């Protein structure tokens, strides 16, 4: 999961390449570098550490030149060192390349190249790819130029097993950047007398709103004024120019200290956008045109599989409860990395949903392709418009949450829950859900944004509670029914941004082993809204208190009896049980956020993580 940029135009490349890297830092941040060509040489600057280290290196010493490539790394092969940072040269030093992805057969290729006298400076698979292209370029001989370079790139990539999004420059083809993709996202940003290559439109949004989302096996050659997109196998490739659907300020933090806090506070708007144009009060149902399935096809669905990773899998678990309770369609969740290998027995009327904020998670992409290989329709629930999953799926529903830059998923989770509620309503109203019930769901959905706002107004109180637990050595999160997945999600938030070990459990599992952990130093967070299992949750809380375990409860306004037995109580507005995870997850996001900040963690770019897991 790295970020790559290429630039060719009339401006000095280095500042633009560095600016773009800052927008992609959430994709990986253990080392970074730029390579810019000028007057017959390629000047390389790269180093371990954050992009700020690279910026310091360039300060007053930026290479001149108007075409170049840059990279921010999340290490897959080789530690985060200066040598392993990208860009990488080929043997001649006349080609520089940056790469996002994994070359699975790089060892074999490296040995073959070493046998031909190649000498490598790093441990990376990406440097092998640079040398492989350089070797092909030398083999073709003849006059220098663009056709020779394209042929060399084609030949080299056809030897590769794995995934790549690459950008490269060659001194024999001045003022030109070449790119290619297979399994890792890559877009072309079309500017005025300048063009960009980037892993994500966020990197170019301040320079252009016109982007081409490249497809697997696309090969692109850019100059300042032109671009050409071919297929790796030869011939022209089809493409379409899309308008980028978010603005520069949306890709910025604004007045917030972290993207994560901004995105937590964007949830009222994000939830509203997830519903926009999709509620049909006149028919007491939802409208989801992107499913590309008519009512007859939807009615014939006799089983649903929801798949995704991390937070998306938690949303899927809520979706399972939703669809089964509202639409009575048998539904199951399988995390994508398991689904892709499980060979699940499915019938011809099984419908699969791939849930993914980025739309690029490699396991979810593979799970989708496996489902399609078995002949199933696979629909995507994605945030990233024109992402690979969005484009390759058989239809789906965009979350419209806006860019989510913080590595920890927040607004994407609640937006996924809203979309799943809309889906359950639509399917339910095609079966046996009444007009009255349908209208109840619609009214409850419409009331959500204001209820979320009310919870966000408690930010300071939640912060004060969080600060009391910033030194916890571990944490338990408990919930039942619709809030069991919310407990898992709360634990994941805590783990991934504060580095406190946390586990999520169905509350009743307490007595099946978990309670052995309870002691006065291990806080338990109970999600116990005013639902039909409230009393059961209260019993579980009593069991923890009986063993001196501190308890923080998230419950519905009015259930003040919990103040008698809990150490802290956070209230959320009343809502139907099927919507409660949308509300209860928000205090847990803030709880984890404030603890992480108090612990000095890098909230937006937690260690070892990246926003989109595009490598296995
Ligand atoms: C959640 O906070 C994490 N960032 C991670 O679990 C994430 O949800 C997972 O990698 C799936 O990402 P996706 O939704 O982009 O596919």
Give the spatial strand order of the biggest sheet.
3-2-4-1-10-9-11-14
Q: Nearest-angstrom radius of gyration?
A: 26 Å
Cα(first) to Cα(last) distance is 10 Å
Please give the count of helices. 20
Q: How much of the polypeptide forms β-strand, as a percent range?
A: 15-25%
Regions with pLDDT < 50 over 5+ consecutive residues?
none
The overall pLDDT, averaged over residues, is: 94
Say which molecules are bound, naming each kind only once: 2-deoxy-2-amino glucitol-6-phosphate
Global shape: globular
Largest sheet: 8 strands, antiparallel
Number of strands: 26
Class by alpha and beta content: alpha/beta
Helix fraction by DSSP (H/I, runs of at least 4): 25-40%
Write the layout of secondary structure elements.
Elements: E1 3-8, H1 13-24, E2 31-38, E3 41-48, H2 51-58, E4 67-73, E5 88-89, E6 95-100, H3 106-115, H4 125-140, H5 146-157, E7 164-170, E8 177-182, E9 187-190, E10 195-198, E11 210-213, E12 218-222, E13 227-231, E14 241-243, H6 259-265, H7 267-275, E15 279-280, E16 285-286, H8 295-300, E17 303-308, H9 310-326, E18 331-335, H10 336-342, E19 350-356, H11 362-373, E20 378-382, H12 388-392, E21 396-398, H13 411-429, H14 435-446, H15 448-456, H16 459-467, E22 474-479, H17 484-498, E23 501-506, E24 524-527, H18 534-545, E25 551-556, H19 562-565, E26 568-572, H20 580-598
Parallel strand pairs: 17-18, 17-19, 19-20, 20-21, 22-23, 22-24, 24-25, 25-26
Antiparallel strand pairs: 1-4, 1-10, 2-3, 2-4, 5-6, 6-7, 7-8, 8-12, 9-10, 9-11, 11-14, 12-13, 15-16
Bound molecules: 2-deoxy-2-amino glucitol-6-phosphate (AGP).
2-deoxy-2-amino glucitol-6-phosphate binds next to helix 9 and helix 17.
